[in-house]
Every structure is written in C-alpha cells, then in structure tokens.
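Hi Y.,

Following your request, here is the sequence exactly as I used it, all 689 residues.
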Amino acid sequence: MWWLLRNAVRHCKRRGCLFPFSISFFQNCASRSDPTIISSVMKRRLQRNVSYIAKYPENVIMMWVGSVPRIARKKISCIGGMEEQSLHICFVYCVPHSKTLVEINLVRPLNELFLQTCDKIKEKISKFIHKQSSEVVCDESDTSEFVFSAPGRPNLVIALVARTTHPAVQLLSTNEQVYKDENVLDMCINNDAYRLLRNPPRCTKLVIKLKPLVGCPLMASFSLSENLRKVEPSFHWYVGEPDACLISPVLNNIPGGKSKYTMDGWIYRSTGKYFCPSVEDIGKRICVLLDMGADTIVYCADTDGEVSEVGEALIFEERQATFCQEHANSGNTRVISYNVLANLYLDLKLRQEDLHFPYCAKEYQNYDYRYPILLREIPGMILVFDENQQDSYQADIIFLQEVDERLWLRFLPDVMSSNGYDCYFKKKGMKVNEGLVICFRRKQFRCLESHNMWLPDLLNTGTYPENADIIGLLKNSDELNAMFVSKPAVIQVLVLDSSSLFAKENGILLLANTHLYFDPRFEIIKILQALLCARWIVRVATDYANRNPKAKLHVLFAGDFNSTPDGAVYRLLSTGNISVKSDCLAYSQYPKIYGDINFTIQPSFPSFNLNLTNLGDETQFTNYTRHYRYNGQIAGFEGCLDYIWGSANVKVQKVIPVPPKEIAKKYVALPSKISPSDHLPLVCDIRLH
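Below is the corresponding structure, written out as tokens. Let me know if you'd prefer a different format.
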C-alpha cells in the first residue's frame, strides 16, 4: 500500500496541481484488502505533502486570458502550436448524487472552437467520476500511475446560456469569441447552471517563507493577477498542531469581525497583514488564509516548521527597554540610521569557513530568520503579550540602507504602514537588487517632493556645472573613471513638510540617504561619491528655497558612509572641503590625478549654505565584524561607519548608546543569532531650530 500512497503524491506533483484525492478515497481502497493498512502516521505523511490549497466558489466558472504555464506547453503543443496568450478555465464541478467536488483547470488556445474545449471539460469530469467509481487494479509493472477498471462513463451535456444568439452558434465560436461576448452569461452542465465570471481577481502565489518566531511578525509572500477590479485581500491567521493538515475551509457566519472561515484542526487567531506568534504557540504550525471577497478563490498556505523562540534576548531589546521607553521629548525628533545587511551579499552556497561572516551559522544569516527580527526591531511595534507592551525605538524618522528588494516588495511597507509610517524606496543603480529606504511618521510629516539620483548621472557639465571639477579629475584617469561609473551608489532625497513640529507654517525638512562604496583601498571613490551627494543636497535645497523663500529649511543627511571618523569623507562633510593631494597620496595607482586640487561642497552661487555637523557619537562602534579566519588571520572591522549629519539649525539633544561590546562579541561578531545585521542602528534625538 505504501507504493500506492507514494505514487499518488508523485502523480499530483507531476501534474502541478493541488492534491485531488481525499484520504477517505485511499481508506476505501485499502479497506478492500486490509483495513489496517492506512494508519494515522500514513495519513499525516500523505496530508503533509499538501502545503497549499484553494477553495473555489460554487456554481461559478472563472475565465481569463493569460500566458501559458510552462507545464502545459508541451501537453497542448500538438494543437497547431500554443499561442502566447490562451484561455484559462477554472471551476469546481459537483458530482450528481454525491458531495464530491471535482476541480477543473484548463488552458486552451484562443483560436480553438469552444465546442472542442467543452469536450475537454467533459473528458476531465468523466475521468474523475470513472476513477471514483471503479475498482483499483494494481499493476505492479507500472509503479508511476494508477490503473483502474473501465465501467461506462456518464453522459454530459454542456450548453451556453446567452441573452441573444442561438447557443449552438456560440459553441461553434472560438474560445476568444466566447470570452469576449458579454451576452454569454452562463454555462450549463446537464441541469446545473454555472455563472461565467470573466477575469476575476486571482492569487498566483501564496507561501510562508519566513520562520515563525515568537514576538516577530510573520508574513506571507503572495502575488495577485493584474485585474481591472482592485482587490484588497484579507489575511486570516490560524494555529494548529504539528500534524495538522490543510483542508478546504468551511464558510461560517462568525460575528465580531473575525474570519468567516473555519478549518478542522486549526484555531483562528487574528486577521491582518502579519501575525506575531506568542509563547503559547511554540511547537505549533501557522496557517494563513487569503480571501479576496465574493466570487474569488480562497487560498491557504502553512509554514514548513513550527513556531520557535530565539531563547535569549536579542541585541536591541535592552537598549530599547532602557533608553527608548518613551517618545522623544516634546519638540524633539528621534532619528535612526541603520544598515540592515542585504541578503544579496551573503553567498550562503559557499562552505561555512569561506563565508564573509564565517563565525555566524548559515541558518542565522538566511533572510527567513533575519527578516522577522528586523520587522520586529525597526518599526517600533506595540504588541501585547500578557498585558505587557513590547519595547521599541519609538523613532520618528528612519533611514535604512541595504534593503533587499524582496524585503521591500513583500514585507517592510505593510509592517511600517500599520505602525504609522510612510515609506519610500530607492533602488541602487546597475540593476543591483537592494537600495535605500526612508520612513517617517505620517502624523508628523508629509512628503512634498522626491529627488533621487544615481551618482554617475550627475557627471554632466551641461546640466550640473558645479561638478565640472570632478568630471575634469575623472578625465585624467580612464581607469578611475571606469571604476567610478560602475558603482551603483545612489542618493535618496525627500522634502517633507514639518510644520507640525513648529506649530506654524513653512517648516521644511530635507532628508538625504546614501550608502557609499565599501573598499578602503579606494578612498578617492568615496570622496567623490560623498561630494556629489552633498552638492546634490545643496542643489535641491537651493531650488526649493528659491521657489519658497519663506521656507524654514532643515537638512538631515544619513547613511552608511563606509568611512571612519579620521577618514577623508568625514573631513569633507564636517569641514566642507578637502585636498585630494593630502588625503589620497598613498594610492599611487592613480599618479596623474594628484596635484593641487581642492574640492569644496559649496558652489560659487549658493542661496543655501550647507554646514553639516555630525549628530551622533563617532566614538561608538556601529559595525562589528572583527574575527579570526580559519587560517588564523584577523579579519573584519570594528568602529564607526554610519553617521547622521545635520545642518546648522539642527541640534542633537541625546544620543542613544549602542549595546555593550560584550553583547556584540557574544557570538564572536555581528551578525549572529541575536543580531540580524553586521551594523547597529545609530539612534539620536534632535531638535529643529
């Protein structure tokens, strides 16, 4: 009997479909030979192969035009070649005199006669009824398919119901003509009428990839079809025992705004974009149900593993509890800058000793573990466990670097929005799938303008004459120029209305965010990148001040500058000028560029004077990766690389201390089991004057 169960799973996986056979079907088959064959363990193993199910609306046939799934291309290539766009038909057929539901999924050419498509529908229904009503014959020479006896198949009659035109005419029409003909309202299969629903909202993907951790947001990854009807899906969260299996949800009228669906073996917990497991959920699995409303498919997916807890305090918990219990004092603003470590740069296919962070186990570097912790740390969530509030940074403005496009597209915006933040993302250049994010509390600020630039785009003398000296410098070295224009660094700039902080109009806050090149061997690259960033800020501020002369303009410039406090970038931003000769003389691979060349941030025609001050504490470390490699060599870094700069009318009120170095070194360095990034967030309270 084991081979029968195994082949059932293989049969479904080959067809790329949901599991179509019920456990009762296999029990009936087994009972004819040995009723003790199907044990509870076998049932769980069979059912646990299902991690995704869908419940279809009854008496509705959904039709849409879309691309052909890869799995279907070869199967129907014999029909004169498959077109790029085909007709998809999806519905559930209720077998007469039975509660059995048959899931019908078809992909047919648009130019095929609808009569031929109806024949395919009949064939699918007949095959299923034939299998359900037949005796099982075990053909031991064929271990990959089921072989059944062949009683007579039922007679099925399919007809279209329309406002006008004889149904026979429509059956002789092509699939495309039937799909576009709004007069065709229903399709009858024998005496059962099915309403035709064209281009309904659909979920093309639903999966839970993140690890369910106690106190951390758990979210599903999903994709919706492009549709004229805008849909806001609802997510309902359930918990179940480890051996609970996914079954089709049952519609119930549950009062109080709860989910209207129940599932045997699962307990409803909450509704929302994300769910935070609690201690009582440890050892249980989580299921999410996605509901898009009436006349849509309801989808369910569950986690691969059970809820667990980290088992010790995360690196940020004591810091938040000690220094961030309250919001910044009245009139102050709390600001964070945080490099969250992009998954893009972690090649976890390498051997452990060859990883960039060899001291950190792969399971703690993978995004499925780090993302839930970041989603708990960043937004300042107010969660209730045993009537205790969870601590947070209580930040008003957040600058993030190295934000994976996956983190941005699937997770971060929904969590931040539900906690009162508006968020803006700027992807890096050169098709790099990570970038910058600025978040701010929507109650305090309103975004007026956005000015983002890939830094090499600023190397245009005609458009940006203030950068003529940089362009001239790069022309002296083809190698340096090629290196500079190949870097993906960008600057993200938002102009916010901050009038609420002043209790009067014209308060403007310009936020700038960047992430400079990392390699310490090429300080000249970072100098030029920082210079272009600062000049872009001056240009945007000058332009806004000219258009709004009454504006009270303040600047915050934050990010990962990959430069220590004694480095050239720090000196440039803190003093406003720098000499290339004095700071880059050691790098003799570019001898032609060194001379009496001085750079200054301010152009000769500014109406806005940018005098920046470091608002943080440069004596604190924001990056700790110091470790010994397997060959005994010291590698990594320890020190300050992240800064928050402010214009002269921005004053720092308080700097939140970073965690003690002993905590950072608990697992050698960062990242670790208790730290999702190799950086620590820089946090300070400021006042705008």
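The chain has four domains: 1-50, 57-136+146-198, 203-302, 317-688.

Thanks again,
Q.
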